[in-house]
């Protein structure tokens, strides 16, 4: 199935969490001069127009990035992420929101590179348009997991893989576990960042328990919710599971999450940082 279009959801609370974690990992990699790769398995479009009919129909960004992008009390650690937003919106009006490829690419240095894969026939041309001619970027209209398998280990031996599937089908939760199993065998020292939506909590348990069984160490889980778990409300929370996280990520997110919750869901939300498997 290829019915999912992220343009309906761009800039929502889940995007905010995902892209903050993504930016923190990339900024950590930049602490060393040696080049790294940023690999995005489900890229979507490079950027999203929040004034178009899809984003306007749901208005989800108003309850996500719309609540924080101009905050004067934002934690210092999320300034690089907010800087990407501001670079796309030169006026005081929030019109454009970056997809994960745009966030990642904007934070790369000259020596770093990116790999983007997208299968959707409508989104891939937009991705091409956004990065066409950029020598740092390789783009593929392929299955994200197949391209990941073919690309590991990277020549740099440093980097991060963002795995962000649409989860349209139930088997996609197990697909994530299988992809990590295959990938870690090829590149055990890479950082893998998995985004997940909380619609049915049992599906998230499937991922965490599946990862535990792989025998991998250093698996950190980060979650931000806007409401209590409910199978009738749609997505009530989202999270990131990070394998081989930067040593600073746990502390950073423990500082950032309470601030995020206070801005996005002060009365109904929840947040946590916990180890699925410690070091």
UniProtKB/TrEMBL annotation:
Site (Interaction with substrate rRNA): 4
Domain of life, per lineage: Bacteria
One Gene Ontology cellular component annotation held by this UniProt entry: cytosol
A GO molecular-function descriptor: RNA binding
Keyword Methyltransferase: yes
GO biological process, one term: rRNA base methylation
EC number of the protein: 2.1.1.266
Sequence positions that bind S-adenosyl-L-methionine: 19, 42, 100, 118, 143-144, 164
InterPro entries named among the record's database cross-references: RlmJ, SAM-dependent_MTases_sf
Active-site positions on this chain: 164 (proton acceptor)
Keywords on record: Methyltransferase, RNA-binding, rRNA processing, S-adenosyl-L-methionine, Transferase
Catalytic activity: adenosine(2030) in 23S rRNA + S-adenosyl-L-methionine = N(6)-methyladenosine(2030) in 23S rRNA + S-adenosyl-L-homocysteine + H(+)
Pfam family, one: RsmJ
Task of the protein: Specifically methylates the adenine in position 2030 of 23S rRNA.
Family per record: Belongs to the RlmJ family.
Complexes and interactors: Monomer.
Full protein name: Ribosomal RNA large subunit methyltransferase J
Gene from which the chain derives: rlmJ
């Amino acid at each position: 199935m290829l019915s999912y279009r992220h343009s309906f959801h761009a800039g929502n609370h889940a995007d905010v969490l995902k892209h903050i974690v993504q930016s923190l990992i990339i900024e950590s990699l930049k602490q060393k001069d040696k080049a790294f790769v940023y690999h995005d398995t489900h890229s979507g479009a490079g950027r999203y127009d929040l004034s178009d009919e899809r984003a306007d129909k749901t208005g989800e960004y108003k309850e996500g990035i719309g609540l924080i992008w101009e905050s004067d009390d934002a934690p210092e650690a999320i300034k690089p992420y907010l800087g990407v937003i501001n670079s796309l919106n030169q006026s005081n009006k929030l019109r454009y929101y970056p997809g994960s490829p745009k966030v990642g690419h904007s934070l790369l240095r000259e020596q770093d590179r990116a790999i983007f894969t997208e299968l959707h026939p409508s989104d891939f041309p937009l991705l091409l348009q956004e990065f066409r001619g950029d020598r740092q970027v390789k783009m593929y209209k392929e299955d994200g997991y197949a391209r990941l398998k073919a690309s590991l280990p990277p020549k740099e031996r440093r980097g991060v893989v963002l795995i962000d599937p649409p989860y349209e089908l139930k088997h996609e939760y197990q697909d994530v576990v299988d992809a990590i199993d295959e990938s870690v065998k090829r590149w055990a020292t890479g950082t893998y960042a998995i985004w997940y939506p909380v619609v049915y909590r049992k599906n998230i348990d499937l991922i965490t328990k599946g990862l535990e069984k792989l025998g991998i160490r250093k698996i950190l889980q980060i979650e931000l919710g806007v409401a209590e778990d409910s199978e009738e409300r749609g997505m009530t929370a989202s999270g990131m599971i990070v394998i081989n996280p930067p040593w600073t990520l746990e502390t950073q997110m423990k500082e950032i999450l309470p601030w995020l919750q206070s801005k996005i869901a002060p009365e109904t939300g929840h947040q946590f940082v916990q180890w699925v498997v410690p070091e």
